[in-house]
Amino acid sequence: MKLTYTPEQEAFRREVRGWMEAHVPAKPLPSFDASREGFEAHRQWERTLNSGRWGMVTWPEAYGGRALDLIQWLIFEEEYYRAGAPLRVNQNGIFLLAPTMMEFGSAEQKARFLPRMAAGDDIWAQAWSEPQAGSDLAGVRASATLDGDHYVLNGHKIWSSRAVFADWAFGLFRTDPASERHKGLSLILFPLSAEGVRVQAIPQIDGETGFAEIFLEGARIPVENRLGEEGQGWAICMATAGFERGLMLRSPARYQVAAQKLVQLYRRHENEVDPTVKAAVMQAWMDSEAYALSIYATASRLMAGGKIGPEASTNKIFWSEMDIALHRTALAILGPRAELLDTAPDAGDVDGWLGGYLFSLAGPIYAGTNEVQRNIIAERMLGLPKG
Fold first, then answer.
1. Residue 359: is its pLDDT beyond 90?
2. Which of 23, 39, 68, 127 is within CB 3.0–4.6 Å of 157 for a Cys-Cys bond?
3. What does the DSSP 8-state code read for residue 151?
4. 243: exposed, middle or buried (C-beta count within 10 Å: 0-12, 13-18, 19+)?
5. Which pLDDT tens digit goes with each residue over 166-213?
6. Is it the case that residue 50 has pLDDT exceeding 90?
7. Collapsing DSSP states into helix, strand and coil, what is residue 197?
8. Catalytic residue list
9. How far apart are CA 212 and CA 169, in angstroms?
10. Burial class of residue 160, CB neighbours in 10 A (0-12, 13-18, 19+)
């Protein structure tokens, strides 16, 4: 498969590249997980993107987008990562909740939430996992009890990304107390500042607070904050998971740029490393290109009216394992220096590879563990019986 672009697409690429060169901060922003200061700096970057209508180019213009297609989005992502632009602090919102809301939300919900999301006014966290229901999403116990025109939320959510500083969360709740497993679930949007909502940070191995627990103790949330019909939560969340695993959350450009950096790292140290490392570098580059071609094919299929199905699980396994292998190869090239922080006197060109490797180890866990993804592939794609 060979990618070719139309003159219009090439012109769009030049437009994106020019804007990024003029607006991407000269110095990296402080981590959005380390402090409120870093979080707010990234919120301001979201507002800068929105000022040029770059927050999410595929959205309708009425919600702050440009009404562009998925191929143009992939081009945008390539230029975004090429420019070294900041990570998206609102990725839970723009990449996961927003496309789900486009499909299942009411006109009122779209008008209420999407423009504020695009502007960075509302940063979103995902509240799915629970202490007793991590990868088993159907086992959630958090409840939403109908009381007039409000739901009363009770329960305990965990591993909620960005929840420490975020404004809103979208969570799965059991609205039918007599239901089991996939039935009787609803997706509800709730402000993290609401009475009865308590957020507690979970320090990571690096000391940052990228995750949090959310305790819900009688929080009253208007019924109008339910996304879709009551009891439709499982189907909605599976649609969100498709975006998370198969297309939006991890665009190919993320890994293509990392693979290019890996090649450059290898060339600087080629005479110092075991010759077998060269094969791992080549494999990382080929895998990143293969993933890009696969996502371009997925985007083309969606533009032709197709859907993201269980094959999203194959994508998720591929990019998460590719990410680990890529970073592990970088550490092998760096040798003992790989253990140094970027600020160490003898760090040289360690360039964040250690931090990237530690983060990559979470890839096979978040967005549904790879073990669960393999079960999905076996049962829904290959038609194998349940074990």
1. no
2. 127
3. E
4. buried
5. 999 999 999 977 777 778 899 999 999 999 999 999 987 777 888 899
6. yes
7. strand
8. 244
9. 12
10. buried
Q: Is 348 left (phi over 0), alpha (psi -120 to 50) or beta?
A: left
> What's the rounded Cα separation, in Å, for the pair 181 and 267?
52
HSE-CB at 156 with a 13 A cutoff on CA atoms is 6
d(C-alpha 179, C-alpha 299), whole Å:
36
Does residue 171 sit in helix, strand or coil?
strand
- Provide the terminal-to-terminal Cα distance of the chain, rounded to the nearest Å: 37
* Backbone phi and psi for residue 288, each to the nearest 5 degrees, phi listed first: -65, -40
Instruction: For the chain, list the domains and their CATH numbers.
Output: 7-89 (no CATH), 125-232 (2.40.110.10), 250-381 (1.20.140.10)
Contact 30, 40 (CB under 8 A): no
Question: pLDDT tens across 222-247, in order?
Answer: 999 999 999 888 888 877 666 555 56
Structure tokens at 127: 């509240």
d(CA 35, CA 33): 6
- Contacts of residue 69, defined as CB under 8 A and 6 or more positions apart, other chains included, come to 58, 299, 303
Tens-digit pLDDT profile for residues 254-266: 999 999 999 999 9
Paired with 154 in beta bridges are 143, 217
Q: What letter would DSSP give residue 45? A: H
Query: In sequence order, which residues have a C-beta less than 8 Å from that of residue 101 and are 6 or more positions away?
Result: 109, 110, 113, 114, 227
Supply the pLDDT for residue 339: 86
Interhelix angle 7-23/70-82, nearest 10 degrees: 40
DSSP-derived pairing of the beta strands 197-202 and 211-222: antiparallel
C-beta of residue 116 within 8 angstroms of C-beta of residue 94: no
**What are 222's two structure tokens?**
């208007």
Buried b (16+ CB within 10 A) or exposed e, 1-16: eeeeeeeeeeebbeeb
The pLDDT value recorded for residue 248 is 65
